[in-house]
Amino acid sequence: MGRVSIAVSCALLALGASLSTSHAAQAVSECVKVEPEASARGMALRVRNQCEFTVRCELRWSVRCEDDTAETPERPMSLEVRLAPSHAREVLASGEACGERLWEIADDVWECKEVR
Which region is the signal sequence (predicted)? Predict the structure, then answer.
């Protein structure tokens, strides 16, 4: 397995802060918790829904591999998770697209919204 270089931006921890019209008192950003942890395979994220409603969360990122040039096309990746109230799940943002080469997770965005 290749070594990994993980660049985690603050955006990874910044949840979408859209207010629900049916739950105006509780913003999604206040009740969904994301706990990141670096691992050899990528960035493990434990997502916990503490909201009173179901949420759908999406993580989008790009993978950059060792020896990429300016002409190398981006490798956009994404994961989606749907969580009922009081449920949690672990997801993995990985750099498997690079195989054995060193890689980096970049341009990461994490967004959660209420499921209606």
Answer: 1-27
DSSP 52: S
- Residue 20 near residue 45, CB atoms below 8 Å: no
- pTM of this prediction exceeds 0.85: no
pLDDT band at 7 (very low <50, low <70, confident <90, very high): very low
Q: Would residue 62 count as lying in a domain?
A: yes
Gap between the Cα atoms of 96 and 82, Å rounded: 23
| Whole-angstrom distance, CA of residue 47 vs CA of residue 32 | 7
As to burial, measured by CB atoms within 10 angstroms (0-12 exposed, 13-18 middle, 19+ buried), residue 15 is: buried
Tokens of 16: 């979408």
Q: How many domains does the chain have?
A: 1
Q: Would residue 4 count as lying in a domain?
A: no
pLDDT digits (tens, 9 = 90+) for 73-94: 989 999 999 999 999 999 888 8
